[in-house]
Specification:
Number of helices of chain A: 13
Largest interface: A-B, 51 and 40 residues
Oligomer: heterotrimer
Largest sheet of chain A: 6 strands, mixed, barrel
Radius of gyration of chain A: 31 Å
Order of helices and strands of chain A: HHEHEEEEHEEEHEHEHHHHHHH
Structural class of chain A: alpha+beta
Shape of chain A: elongated
Radius of gyration of chain B: 33 Å
Distance between the termini of chain A: 32 Å
Strand order of the largest sheet of chain B: 1-3-4-2-5
Helix content of chain B: 55-70%
Distance between the termini of chain B: 83 Å
Helix content of chain A: 40-55%
Largest sheet of chain B: 5 strands, mixed
Chains: A alpha+beta, B alpha+beta, C alpha/beta
Strand content of chain A: 15-25%
Number of domains of chain A: 2
């Protein structure tokens, strides 16, 4: 090893050329980075969202996914009671989702209502005020947008209407509530107008109390490592229900968004190919230009190995520098692309398509660096194998 | 209200219920979508059980039609299966004989949908009224997002391609610096050299555009074939229109000419002795 | 009689060009003794540079042998031959062929670094060599900042880096003007006076006149021989 680093320093001979190459590699690296983030980001984001409150299993009507349809399960209290008797289960609670209205001045506002068990809920985090208590039939929790729309806060009153009676043009089921707190609903999309009350209250509003209906039951297992076996056991115990662990839900979700995963693989591969082509082309041309110098070095005794190492080092330097710029660029473009994709209607606001994870980013960077460096193999081979005398003769003419 | 209907083919249950012609005439008819019929091995005249819960499949119906659902992009990722029944039969099964989710309203020719909707909205307490156009616009938001995403990817790809193109053009033109020096020495004008290089860049851009268009058509066909099979649908996923081709060719020609111009300009503005390497 | 430093026996070199075979050398034999200053002269195409390249192990002959201090070059592997060129030969080319991205000192250090000399030692020697060739004030200048004559002197310093047994120069003044060429001439004279063995291919009569022996070549053969 010469320790002089003439290969890397050759990049400074043509600053514009090197700058353009770095720009090209940076854009390719940014795209690769983004696609890596996209490929694994969907599952990571969704999985994190599902586990935000630590509930690992959901029970829904057979053949459905949570809040995917309007189907409900009957006898929610019975199911929850049975689950709470299970020693492997730390907490279980039923949730009902329903459409209702809120009164704002003299107009009605469409809202989404959650009926919850405050002692076992995986849906919200209190941001101001207080949470509901288990027997609180007069209290309600509001999402921030609802509080702003209705102009109310903790301690104020609101009227919620479960059903409208067109015959008499008035509310069929309506009640006045006290706002206990403003909460962040974890699965709401941006601007969603959600309210929450204890489950029996919401069932009454939705006229679902007779059959004790709920949209789903959330379960927190005591042992994270035993979630799979618990889910399998619950499937046997409740054959009329759909039992979904977080892993099951993520798998469903992956299937629905398979297009993005496939797109990320295709675009990521193309980015890698573009970067490799650019580096290989640049190095091949610059080696060709400097062939006289290189064979002279061979003539004065520099070994083939040194020549190869220097050319590879040049490729590695290009890849490293371009890749470093690409990381910053990639993070910026990821934010831009994420802002576009999170505009999907109905998507939880907390969801993200582009999720940087140290492991996969490190792998992507390593793959880029390795392939970019190896892109210099052909030009390095050219440089090392050029016949000295013949090249010197050609240079002299 | 959409309910989850569990439909079990009798073959899947392992036993068949053969209903005589007289009895089948009294059973309600059910139309099954093609994919579901294939999954359950159903044919016209087969009798099926259905119900509103997995443990209450008590009602019978006869498959009176198998239909190919209209391709709906909003539905393909959900992989749900659908059946159709006469409204009274479904309402009876749900135990709500006079209940529906929505009404569809057809207007007499000449009436504006939006004004009719406004009238209904003001008069029908407890109802929400939407024109079909508004629903279509709302439900196509998903695809607008995807379109914007594709456009953003396209922009990034074009930027990367443009940088790559400029870099390669610079390299290729600089490779011929000695030739360019000799040309200048023997009296060839800058304008002539510039024109020659630009023509070369244009030719490369044209050939590249043609090849690229061919590749795009092939890739589009492959994309459609793959996703149609994957999602079992007749939807078109990639649609290359003449407008898209014209835009792409114009853009690639433009980028090629710009890159070629920049590279050529750099070469012709350099003094011949510098090109020759003597200064 | 002292053994020769460099000896070529019946050297032949043929290579294809435009579909024909060019006989660049037709059975050339030459002996170089330690401390000799030999000039090889002749018209263009006479095979001078080809002979020099074969003597230095840069090219392989179609026939005949070259020995350096008894070691046959054709018996060596590519790696050993490369090593030999690094440590036993010093080359000076007509077009200098220095690396423009390096300074004068770094260009001189390059062969020493390749030979594994520690950094401190090779830096000191590079400065010493540059001072020897009269460039002590130009040590950290980039090559592009030097004149033609200065570049050639750097090239000579580089050739001396690993204390070669013989210095081979191919038209060292070919790219230089008269005045600058004279500087190189003085340098070669000084090298020879200090005991270096020089083999110089040249059209420059002044360089040839400095040599202790002039070998004339024509059409791939030596016109006058020295035993």
């Amino acid at each position: 090893m010469t320790g002089i680093g003439w290969g890397v320093r050759s990049l400074g001979r043509h600053p514009l050329r090197t700058a353009l190459s770095l720009a090209g590699i940076a854009v390719a690296a940014a795209m690769l980075l983004d696609m890596v983030m996209l490929s694994g980001g969907l599952e990571k984001s969704f999985g994190d969202l599902l586990l935000a409150r630590g509930y690992q299993i959901r029970l829904t009507p057979r053949g459905t996914l949570p809040f995917d349809t309007e189907a409900t399960l009957d006898g929610a209290s019975r199911v929850v009671a049975a689950l709470r008797r299970d020693p492997a289960i730390e907490a279980a609670g039923a949730v009902l989702g329903t459409a209702l209205y809120g009164r704002s001045a003299d107009s009605l506002v469409g809202l989404f209502g959650y009926g919850v068990d405050p002692t076992a809920q995986g849906l919200y985090q209190v941001t101001s005020g207080a949470d509901l208590t288990p027997g609180d039939t007069a209290g309600v929790l509001l999402a921030g947008p609802v509080a702003r729309l209705l102009g109310v806060g903790p301690g104020d009153s609101v009227t919620l209407i479960g059903r409208l009676d067109p015959q008499v043009a008035m509310a069929a089921v309506g009640r006045r509530f006290v706002v206990r707190g403003v909460v962040h609903w974890l699965y709401d999309h941006r601007g969603q107008l959600s309210v929450g009350a204890v489950l029996p209250v919401m069932q009454r509003l939705a006229r679902a109390d007779a059959a004790d209906r709920a949209s789903l039951v959330v379960i927190k297992a005591r042992d994270d490592g035993a979630v799979g076996s618990l889910a399998a056991r619950l499937r046997r115990e409740f054959p009329e229900l759909e039992v979904s662990s977080v892993a099951d839900l993520v798998a469903h979700f992956k299937l629905r968004l398979v297009y993005f995963r496939q797109l990320s693989y295709i675009l990521g591969s193309m980015s890698l190919i573009v970067a490799v082509l650019l580096i290989a082309t640049l190095l091949t041309i610059t080696v060709h230009e400097r062939l006289g110098e290189i064979v002279t070095l061979r003539a004065i005794g520099v070994s083939r190995g040194t020549v190869i190492r220097q050319v590879l080092a040049e490729g590695a330097a290009l890849t490293g520098a371009g890749g470093a710029i690409g990381i910053g660029l990639g993070l910026l473009t990821a934010r831009y692309l994420d802002a576009i994709l999170t505009g999907f209607p109905g998507l939880p606001a907390a969801f993200s398509f582009f999720v940087p994870r140290a492991g996969t980013l490190g792998t992507a960077a390593a793959v880029l660096f390795l392939t970019g460096s190896l892109a210099g193999l052909y030009p390095a081979w050219l440089a090392a194998r050029s016949p000295i005398a013949e090249t010197l003769r050609a240079e002299a003419t | 209200m959409r309910i989850a209907i569990a439909v079990r083919g009798l073959a899947a249950l392992g036993w068949t219920l053969c209903v005589a012609g007289f009895a089948s005439a009294q059973l309600p008819g059910i139309a099954v979508e093609r994919g579901l019929a294939a999954d359950l091995g159903l044919g016209i005249g087969d009798t099926v059980r259905f119900g509103t819960a997995p443990d209450s499949l008590r009602r019978l119906a006869v498959v009176s039609a198998i239909y190919q659902p209209r391709p709906d992009p909003a539905e393909i990722s959900k992989r749900q299966r659908h059946v159709r029944m006469h409204l009274p039969d479904l309402a009876a099964a749900l135990g709500a004989p006079d209940r529906v989710d929505r009404f569809g309203v057809g207007l007499r020719p000449g009436l504006a949908a939006e004004s009719a909707a406004a009238v209904l909205r003001s008069n029908a307490f407890g109802y929400q009224v939407h024109s079909t156009r508004a629903i279509a616009s709302e439900s196509s938001q998903t695809f607008l997002v995807i379109s914007r995403f594709h456009r953003a990817i396209a922009i990034i790809t074009i930027v990367a391609g443009a940088v790559f193109l400029l870099c390669i053009m610079l390299l290729k033109v600089e490779e011929r610096r000695l030739d360019a020096a000799v040309m200048r020495f023997i009296g060839v004008r800058r304008r002539t050299m510039f024109g020659a290089l630009l023509l070369e860049a244009a030719l490369v851009a044209v050939v590249g555009s043609v090849v690229g268009t061919g590749m795009a058509l092939m890739a589009g066909a492959a994309t459609n074939a793959y996703y149609r099979r994957f999602f079992d649908t007749a939807l078109t996923f990639s649609h290359i229109t003449p407008r898209i081709v014209i835009f792409s060719v114009a853009l690639s020609l433009g980028l090629g000419l710009v890159a070629g111009s920049l590279a050529a300009w750099r070469l012709v503005r350099t003094r011949p002795m510098v090109l020759w390497g003597r200064q | 009689m002292t053994p020769p430093l460099l000896q070529a026996a019946d050297l032949r070199k043929d290579y294809p060009m435009n579909g024909e075979t060019v006989h660049a050398l037709r059975g050339v034999s030459l002996r170089i003794d330690p401390g000799e200053y030999v000039a090889i002269v002749g018209p263009s195409g006479s095979g001078k540079s080809t002979l020099l390249q074969l003597l230095g192990g840069i090219d392989t002959p179609s026939g005949g042998t070259v020995e350096l201090q008894g070691t046959r070059l054709d018996a060596l592997s590519d790696g050993d031959l490369t090593r030999l060129r690094l440590t036993r030969f010093g080359f000076v080319f007509q077009r200098f062929h220095l690396l423009p991205v390096l300074t004068a000192r770094e260009n001189v250090e390059l062969p020493m670094a390749e030979a594994g000399m520690p950094r401190g030692e090779r830096r000191a020697r590079a400065r010493e060599l540059l001072a020897y060739v009269g460039l002590e004030g130009r040590t950290d200048y980039r090559i592009t900042q030097l004149s033609g004559g200065e570049m050639q002197r750097v090239a000579i310093a580089r050739a001396l880096a690993n204390r070669p047994a013989v210095l081979l120069a191919d038209e060292p003044t070919g790219e230089l003007d008269m005045t600058t060429g004279r500087q190189i001439l003085h340098l070669f004279r000084r090298l020879h006076a200090d005991g270096a063995t020089l083999v110089v291919v040249t059209h420059d009569e002044r360089l040839a006149a400095e040599a202790g022996r002039v070998v004339h070549m024509l059409d791939g053969a030596i016109l006058d021989r020295c035993s």
